[in-house]
Amino acid sequence: DNAMSKRKVLLMGKSGAGKTSMRSIIFANYIARDCDRLGPTLEIEHAHVRFLGNMALHLWDCGGQETFMENYMTSQRDQIFKNVQVLIYVFDVESREIDKDYRNYQGCLEALLQNSPAATVFCLIHKMDLVSEENRNKVFQEKVEDIQRITNSTAERLHSSATIECHPSSIWDETLYKAWSAIVYHLVPNVTAMEQKLNQFADIIEADEILLFEKATFLVVAQVSKKEFTDHHRFEKVSNIIKQFKLSCSRMGAQFDSILVRNSEFSAFIDSFTNNTYIMSICDGNISTAAVSMNIKSARKHFE
Ligand code: GTP
C-alpha cells in the first residue's frame, strides 16, 4: 500500500433501493428525512471520501436503472469491476421484482468474480423498517438463504469462491451504522495492531470498553471490551446518536469537543483523539474524569 491507500468500493442494486440515501447519510451529513429529495443516480457517481486521514474510499454509486445496469454488464464491464475491494449490493426488501433483482445480483457477482476475485461482497437487505418488527428476523433469514444459494452456485460455475456477508439495514435506525461499520472495519488496514494498542491502553486507564470512531462518519473503526455488555447494538446506537448530535451542533454553528455521561455505575467519556478519530472510554462511575482525560491526551501520540 502506498501512503494514500485507495479502496475501490462499488455500491450497486436496483434503482430506488436506497444506495444514494445511505451514502449521503454516512458520508455527506444528510439526515434520513432529507433522502426523499434525492433524484435517481444517472450512470455512476464517483465519490471520493477521505477516511482516517490517509485512506480514500473511492465509492462508485452505480445508478440502478435498467439501461445503466445493462451497460455495466457489457461495455463498461472491465472498467467497473476491476480492482474492486468491496462490492456493496443493496436489495430493497419490499421489491416486487425479486427474480429480476436476483438475476441482476448474479450478473454483478459474475462480473466481480471474473475481474476482482479477491473482493468481498456485502449484501444489505435494506428498508427493513418497512417490515413489521416481529417478521424482520424471518424475512431477513429467508433473503440471506436465497442470496447465499445464488452466490454459491455462481461461484461454483466459475470455479471460484466468493466471500459474502449479509446485513439488515434501514436509514431510519442504527442498523445503517452497524452495516457500514462492518464494511469499513473490513477496509481499514491494521485494525488488529490498533486494537492491541487500545487493549493496553484500556488496561492502563482501567476502562471496561474503549471505542474509536472515525471523525467524519462516526463509524466504529476499532474496539476493545474488557467485560460482557448486554446491549449488542450499543456501538451503532452511539454512532447514530452522536452523529445526530454533531449535526445539530453544526446547524447552530457550534462544534462539539467532548461529552461526558456519568452516573453511579459508569462514566462514558467521548473526546477527540487523533486527527481522524474520536475515542469513547467506558469506565467505572467513580473514576476521575480529569485522570481519564489526561491519559487520553498523553495516549494520542501513540496512535497517530
Ligand atoms: P438510483 O439512484 O436510481 O439507483 O436509486 P438509489 O438506490 O440511489 O435510491 P435512493 O437512495 O435515491 O432512494 C430511493 C428512495 O428510497 C428515497 O425516497 C428514500 O427516501 C427511500 N429510502 C432509502 N432508504 C430507505 C430505508 O431504509 N427505508 C425506507 N422506508 N425508505 C428508504
From TrEMBL:
UniProt record, GO biological process: cellular response to starvation; negative regulation of autophagy; positive regulation of TORC1 signaling
Stored Gene3D superfamilies: 3.30.450.190, P-loop containing nucleotide triphosphate hydrolases
Any one GO CC term of the record: lysosome
SUPFAM superfamilies per the UniProt record, alphabetical: P-loop containing nucleoside triphosphate hydrolases
Alphabetized UniProt keyword annotations: Cytoplasm, GTP-binding, Nucleotide-binding
Any matching Pfam family: Gtr1_RagA
Subcellular localization, as worded in the UniProt entry: Cytoplasm
Keyword hit for GTP-binding: yes
GO molecular function list: GTP binding; GTPase activity
Catalytically driven reaction(s): GTP + H2O = GDP + phosphate + H(+)
Superkingdom of origin organism: Eukaryota
Family: Belongs to the GTR/RAG GTP-binding protein family.
Annotated protein name in UniProt: GTP-binding protein
Organism annotation: Panagrolaimus davidi
